[in-house]
Amino acid sequence: MGFHGFIPSFVTATGKDVLQGVNYASGADGIRDETGQHGDRITLTRQLINYQLTVAQIATLLGGAAAAADQLSKCVFTVGIGSNDYINNYFLPNLSPTSKKFTPEQYAKALIAQYSLQLKILHEFGARKVALFGLGDLLDNINSAVQLFNDKLKSLVNDLNTEFTDSKFTYINIFGIGSGDPKAAGFKVTDSWCCGGRTGCAPSATPCSNRREFVFFDEFHPTEAVNVNLAARAYKSSTPSDVSPIDINTLANL
Asked: Phi, psi at residue 186, to the nearest 5°?
């Protein structure tokens, strides 16, 4: 993609930095506003507001809305969200009532309906090349619910491509990419975590020294080595099932 460093976060990007890209992500955030409310996070709703502020900045820098729209039409937008709506919402019945209100099928449908509206806001404010990451492998008791979400997200991509002929949306099959034999990819430890236990990797914990050999850094998060592999196949797919309909490399060059 031509980047020489990490894309700056929204709170640190200033001036012409925004023309190179902005990262709006927030830990523990979700599609639903109440997701992760037991901790600090910036909701997707707020992230979209922040993005609109960036669009206004770009218009000012480039001399108007038309120039900003042209600039944004060339950008690649990547969105990966939804796992916290399960692990920090639906599957936390002591903190959230959603599992009492929805079956897994109903919940996936409700998430996709809200996500669709949020993505349409992104399109309204200039996004024309959008890669949507599905949810990856979490825990056995959660994965069946995750697959319901992923199936509906893939269908949503098809619907968005039909509705917005001026744009291209694509689905990145993270669950499928990560479902092969980790040991075949060089990972030696697949049944434990590099840091912490079920309470996560606390600031006082000491991570393992050989983290490149681990699949999971903590209970829910893969190691950097795993993420590098996932990103490589999202950018340039290895099999037809990795993406639908196109990989990020193809998307960027449209």
From this structure: 100, 0
* 177, 242 contact by CB (below 8 A): yes
> DSSP secondary-structure letter at 25?
-
Give pTM, 2 decimals. 0.94
pLDDT: is 2 or 35 the higher one? 35
pLDDT score of 4: 83
Could you give the count of Cα atoms lying within 13 Å of 240 in the half-sphere of its Cβ?
A: 0
**pLDDT tens-digit series, residues 100-136:** 999 999 999 999 999 999 999 999 999 999 999 999 9
Confidence of residue 65 (pLDDT cuts 50, 70, 90): very high
Reported as a pLDDT band with limits 50, 70 and 90, residue 201 is confident
* Residue with token string 């770009």: 58
* Model confidence at 198: pLDDT above 70: no
DSSP string, 174-234: HHHHTTS-GGGGT--EEEEESS-BTTB--TT----S-GGGEEESSSS-B-HHHHHHHHHHH
Question: Per-residue b/e over 51-72, b at no fewer than 16 CB within 10 Å?
Answer: beebbebbbeeeeeeeebbebb
Residue type at position 168:
K
Q: Is 139 helix (H, G, I), strand (E, B) or coil?
A: coil
* Structure-token pair, residue 54: 């960036």
> How far apart are alpha carbons 250 and 254 in whole angstroms?
6
